[in-house]
Each structure stands twice: as C-alpha cells, then as structure tokens.
Amino acid sequence: VADIFGSNTLGPTDMGYFLTQMGLPIRAATLLENTEGEERENMQAAIHRLMHPSQMGSLFKVLCWRTQGVPDPAGFQNTFFQ
Q: At what angle do helices 37-51 and 24-33 cross, to 10 degrees?
C-alpha cells in the first residue's frame, strides 16, 4: 500500500530492538540513578516489560512508513528489516 503513495516501509522490527536504538537503556539507567525503593522497583519492572524478548520486547513490533528519498528515521537506521 505504501508504494501507491510514493512511500515505503521499514520494519517491522521488535519493539525491544527499536527502543534500544532510541536509547532507552541509557535513559533508563540515568532515571534509575535518581530513584529508590518501590519507585525504582516499579521502573525496573516497566523497563523489563517493555524490552525483554519474553515480554513486549519481541511480542510487539514497530513499523515505519516513510517518504522515499528521506533518510531512515531514528530507531530504523542500519536495520536488517528493510
């Protein structure tokens, strides 16, 4: 369908891979440095749920629809899913 509109798609790719490419592990580490107790545990659980392959990390996919000639957007650069 994208080709009809002069576009193409990238992906799908696993959400965990996409979030890693977007820098979530680095951002999460920074946030975790400033939290403790139950808030820290909840944040760690949420990060695990979003990124782990047995959770949303591989169960959910990310797809990009882009105009031809535009560079690959963040999170899809140099992926093997093209």
A: 170
